[in-house]
């Protein structure tokens, strides 16, 4: 399996700080790169993190607040400057088409790369590739906002003991996988179902059905936790989550690895977010995101 990891470019909410850039996250998945929410400074953070424009295949914007989209202009121009040799697809709320157009053509530059615009106009499937499907769910925020969910197709896990029992080895294993049957032995005879991996990206939102639909059964959930639990009312008023709420979603949804991010500048100690996530009962792997961090997607559970 090719490398699957999250590269964190920025983790601040609303305004950057000395130690936190505006939002930006790149999911590297079997040779594809998906850039989520390129806030201001994303192009420079990519350079610092070792992510090239050539690595990008999709840009996914959850909503058009500045900390999630102002970097789009620079990223689009960099893609064209570097003459990325493949098309790049952009997903974003269709209601914000005018914002996307302004950012895409913020200044003069030479277009050299095809950037396909596939706006999100409702919940459901956005794209299907051999390696994953990408879908969107509506969130609850003062402006229209969508979260994204990537799902690997289900497959089969070959069982060595059963392969040996049926005398299948070497190149014949590959033949069986491709054909589904070999010398009277079916794929079901020597393998078991293997659930595809799942990844979700949930930014600015209150608790809503979309949050749970995105998080359900995820191997990795990247989710905003702008506020601490003592400011729960403030979070709701502004369309955000607390650390405890985000962790409770992860617990109830069976998430394996929880990545908390999008932190308000009002909190000086990031460890408080981890403490509140654990207090909410989440027992899986937990990461409080920091800029330029690389977080591997968990290996498939056996």
Task: Characterize this entry briefly.
With 302 residues, the protein is of the alpha/beta class. Helix content is 26%, strand content 26%.
Topology:
Blueprint lengths: L3 E7 L13 E6 L2 E5 L5 H8 L8 E3 L5 H4 L2 H10 L6 E4 L5 H8 L10 E3 L6 E5 L4 E6 L7 E6 L3 E4 L1 H6 L5 H9 L1 E2 L2 E2 L4 E4 L3 E5 L6 H7 L4 E5 L7 H7 L4 H11 L3 E5 L9 H9 L5 E4 L5 E3 L6
Parallel strand pairs: 3-4, 4-5, 5-6, 14-15, 15-16, 16-17
Antiparallel strand pairs: 1-2, 1-18, 2-3, 7-8, 8-9, 9-14, 10-13, 11-12
List the main descriptive attributes of the protein structure presented here.
7-stranded mixed sheet; 10 helices; 302 residues
Please characterize this protein's 3D structure.
With 302 residues, the protein is α/β, with parallel strands linked by helices. 26% of the residues lie in helices and 26% in strands. It has ten helices and 18 strands. Strands 6-5-4-3-2-1-18 form a seven-stranded mixed beta sheet. A seven-stranded mixed beta sheet has the order 7-8-9-14-15-16-17. Strands 10-13 form a two-stranded antiparallel sheet. The model has no long low-confidence stretch (mean pLDDT 96).
Strand order of the largest sheet: 6-5-4-3-2-1-18
Largest sheet: 7 strands, mixed
| Protein structure class | alpha/beta
The overall average pLDDT, rounded, is: 96
pLDDT < 50 stretches? none
How would you describe the shape?
Answer: globular
Q: How many individual helices?
A: 10
Question: Using only CA atoms, what is the Rg?
Answer: 21 Å
């Amino acid at each position: 399996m090719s490398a699957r990891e999250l590269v964190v470019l920025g983790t601040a909410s609303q305004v950057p700080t000395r130690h936190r850039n505006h939002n930006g996250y790149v999911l590297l998945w079997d040779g594809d790169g998906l850039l989520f929410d390129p806030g201001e400074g994303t192009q420079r953070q990519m350079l610092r993190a070792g992510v090239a424009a050539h690595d990008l295949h999709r840009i996914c914007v959850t909503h058009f607040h500045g900390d999630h989209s102002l970097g789009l202009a620079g990223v689009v121009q960099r893609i064209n400057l570097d003459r990325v040799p493949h098309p790049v697809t952009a997903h974003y709320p269709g209601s914000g088409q005018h914002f996307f157009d302004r950012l895409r053509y913020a200044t003069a530059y030479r277009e050299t790369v095809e950037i396909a615009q596939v706006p999100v106009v409702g919940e459901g499937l956005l794209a299907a590739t051999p390696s994953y499907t990408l879908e969107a769910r509506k969130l609850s925020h003062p402006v229209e906002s969508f979260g994204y969910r990537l799902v690997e197709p289900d497959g089969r896990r070959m069982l060595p003991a059963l392969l040996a029992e049926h005398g299948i080895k070497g190149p014949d294993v590959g033949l069986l996988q491709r054909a589904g049957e070999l010398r009277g032995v079916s794929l079901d005879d020597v393998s078991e179902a293997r659930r595809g991996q799942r990844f979700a990206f949930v930014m600015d939102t209150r608790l809503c059905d979309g949050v749970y639909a995105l998080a359900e059964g995820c191997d990795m959930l990247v989710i905003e936790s702008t506020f601490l639990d003592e400011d729960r009312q403030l979070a709701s008023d502004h369309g955000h989550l607390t650390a405890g709420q985000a962790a409770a979603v992860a617990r109830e949804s069976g998430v394996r690895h929880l990545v908390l991010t999008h932190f308000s500048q009002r909190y000086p100690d990031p460890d408080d977010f981890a403490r509140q996530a654990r207090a909410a009962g989440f027992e899986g792997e937990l990461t409080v995101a920091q800029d330029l961090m690389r977080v591997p997607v968990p290996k498939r559970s056996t």
